[in-house]
Amino acid sequence: MILVFTAFLLEGMIMDSGFxxxxxxxxxxxLSLGSIYALIxxxxxxxxxxxKLINFAHGDIYMVGAYIGYFCTTALKLPFLPSIVIxxxxxxxxxxxxxxxxxxxxxxxPRIAILITAIGVSFFLENGMILLVSPQPRTFPAVFSxxxxxxxxxxxxxxxxxxxxxxxxxxxxxxxxxxxxxxGKAMRAVSFDADAARLMGIDIDRVISMTFALGSALAAxxxxxxGIYYNSIDPLMGMTPGIKAFVAAVLGGIGIIPxxxxxxxxxxxxxxxxxxxxxxxxxxxxxxxxxxLILLYKPTGLFGKNVREKV
Length: 311
Fold this sequence. Notes:
Layout: H1 2-51, H2 58-74, H3 80-103, H4 111-133, E1 148-151, E2 154-157, H5 158-180, H6 182-192, H7 194-199, H8 204-230, H9 239-252, H10 257-277, H11 283-297
Antiparallel strand pairs: 1-2
Helix pairs in contact: 1-5, 1-8, 1-9, 1-10, 2-3, 2-4, 2-8, 2-9, 3-8, 5-6, 5-8, 6-8, 9-10, 9-11, 10-11
């Protein structure tokens, strides 16, 4: 009897150990995926914080950044760091052009007109890229030799480390820009009260343009990192990650920068856990279930607060 009980106990410990090992592995995978969502979600939340605009073309800016990084590494034979910097700069320019051509003339139009414009810009970027580079997926070149590290039974590769380190560096840089620079203070002022900021001499158009540039640059960094991680890019690659990044922004509290970071990480971890313990088929469903639940029970998001308005 004692032997049977001991065997049962040992089997349970082994099963628990296996579960914890898989849990930790999926946590690492989720952090890598969530970091990408966080980079894209930051652009959503920054633009919404100032313009109250959901830029549904933001996921396609992420795609444009991935292609710029791809051509830098293939045609120009540049290493990783110059490629991602050029991709961020190119996407920032595209974001500023989109704001200047498509959104600025519609700034005082009804919200539904601006929303339709955003969807139109999204289709324009997708089909424009298909026309330029063909709809066929491209294999992103290996900018780093694949290295796998085994840490106590866990497996982590240098690409995951690159994603995590790059995301942390970019988020720290963004936090510094928003909190400690002149343009960052102007962004916060415009977000709080655009009319008062204009009366104080702040150039609203310039601030909005810089916001689009920063958000687009972060999305482009995410696009290059995804290309490196999954070794494949295509003109429609921005659709699903763009929507999921929007879910992450809503989860954290749309318009709140720390909320976008946390929302992206949470969403990535949830998707990894669903893929690892249930089925990868339900991964996308889990993301949209989170959106439904957050809208039902906490529409302001995890970091948002209910604010009363006088009418």
